[in-house]
Amino acid sequence: MKKNGKIILLCIAVLCVLMAGMYFVYQRFVPKAQEGEKHVVISIVYDDGTQKDIELDTDAAYLLEALSAVADIDGYESDEYGYTLLSVDGVSADFRTGSAYWSVYVNGEYGTLNIARQPLEDGGHYTIAYETF
């Protein structure tokens, strides 16, 4: 029985080391916020296909802060997914009640980060688009 206890402790120790390693790799490669003023373009594509382009000089570090300065937004924060955008300028896209959602594009590429964690870069173009699945 003592042998099984040692094996379990060894497995737990290895698991902790692997988790710590994954955390450090994540911290090393996650995009960092750029300090200072930035000139960015935020495009909002609504459910009817119309698009509003906003040029903005901002010292905001992340997209959520910049977007909330130029549009009326609503959403909620969760530990699991971060900030979930539900409506922009009165246009709702709530995936919990339908098949629509707000997607994020960064310089034309589908965004991989939540808008609260998407850092702004000087000269960046960020698109918030109404989409369905």
Give short descriptive properties of this protein.
3-stranded antiparallel β-sheet, 5-stranded mixed β-sheet, 2 helices, 133 residues, elongated
Please tell me about this protein's structure.
The chain contains 2 helices and 8 strands, in the order H-E-E-H-E-E-E-E-E-E. It is of the alpha+beta class and 133 residues long. The termini are far apart. The mean pLDDT is 88.
Briefly characterize the structure.
The protein has 133 residues and is α+β, with helices and mostly antiparallel strands.
What's the Cα radius of gyration?
20 Å
The total strand number stands at 8
> Which parts are unreliable, with pLDDT below 50 for 5 consecutive residues or more?
none
Give the biggest beta sheet.
5 strands, mixed
- Which sequence of SSEs, written as H and E, runs from N to C? HEEHEEEEEE
Q: Strand sequence of the main sheet, in spatial order?
A: 2-1-8-6-7
End-to-end CA span: 53 Å
**What is the 3D shape?**
elongated
Please, what is the average pLDDT?
88
* Helical content band: 25-40%
Q: Please work out how many helical segments DSSP would assign.
A: 2
Helix and strand content put the structural class at alpha+beta
Strand percentage lies at 35-45%
